[in-house]
Amino acid sequence: MSNPRIDPVDQRLETGLQDLWYAVCPSHFIKERPVSLQRFGYKLALWRDAQGQVRALEDRCPHRGAPLSQGVTLGDRLSCPYHGVEVRHDGVVTSVPGSPGCKLEGQKATRSFHVREVAGTVFIYNASEAVDEPPPLVLPEELTQDDAYSNFLCYTEWKCDYRYALDNVMDPMHGTFLHKQSHSMAEGDNTAKFVVRPTDTGFVFEKEGQRNVNFDWTEFGDTGAHWMRLEIPYPKTGGPGGNFIIVGMCTPITPKLSAVFFWRVRKLEAGWQRDTWRFLYRNRLEARHWHVLEQDRVVLEQMPADANQHENLYQHDLGIVRLRRYLRGQAQAQLDKQAEPAAA
């Protein structure tokens, strides 16, 4: 029995698109001692140098392939545990103690990654080709304007394809049913018509004629990083700050494991109101929000890996269709670009 034809577009999407910024882990995961993380098709070694800056290399020594993350931190370098080969944060081998002056010294022999830290999170640029300077990391204002917004990062890992997690956020109607017992999603009609509204960076998928009632809309944005944003109206018992804003990102770890990031945000300037909300969130609301996420996790992890091959979609799924089409278009464009040199 022959194997089914492998779809190269699906293969590219399975490990994540290239030339994008990805959230990889909360900042507190990375200390001076190197750690190893699997993300978007790579095994990464991450550590902090003497100045506290996060550095990232592919977790593979160029000598024999041993994990650099098991080695010793030497400021901006890692020393491989196997034979002591030292690799700088830019991928250049600076020393081969067992054979000084050998041809490996001075070579850029390990893949390096550009790193940024924003909103308590480490971001890495997944470049298709080595670049001296990556494009800027552009994120929604809720994550970058600390004077106007206050946020908490919720990080978790779900045992499912990251694209199922994206579909889940691009499906406002599931909140009306799956989360109907939630204090923040108990209102609104359980029937609705949806429309797609283009934006400068992506699109909004929203219920027609209903706003500020439930989980009424989702925005997808591509600003060199893929993110999603939504708002949930809050009762007065939820404290000051207007609607509860969620900014989400999802990064593939393996085809069956996803790194999921949700920043919970309120629009509040520094002062007693911000302090009140942050206290209320930690002591009363956070557990409720994790309960909602747990409902999502259970459903997604129980879905078969090929669930999207046996769907019967309807009008409420227009946002999912639009998102999938966009991602496939991006993957196809990257494959076409990579094929151009070979064709020439």
TrEMBL record:
CDD domains: Rieske_RO_Alpha_N
Keyword hit for Amino-acid biosynthesis: no
One GO MF term: metal ion binding
Gene3D superfamilies with a match to the protein in the record: Naphthalene 1,2-dioxygenase Alpha Subunit, Chain A, domain 1, Rieske [2Fe-2S] iron-sulphur domain
Alphabetical list of InterPro entries matching this protein: Cholesterol_7-desaturase, Rieske_2Fe-2S, Rieske_2Fe-2S_sf, VanA_C_cat
Superkingdom in the source lineage: Bacteria
The Rieske domain, residue ranges: 21-124
Keywords: 2Fe-2S, Dioxygenase, Iron, Iron-sulfur, Metal-binding, Oxidoreductase
Signal peptide limits: none
Keyword Oxidoreductase assigned: yes
Protein name: Aromatic ring-hydroxylating dioxygenase subunit alpha
Biological classification of the source: Bacteria, Pseudomonadati, Pseudomonadota, Betaproteobacteria, Burkholderiales
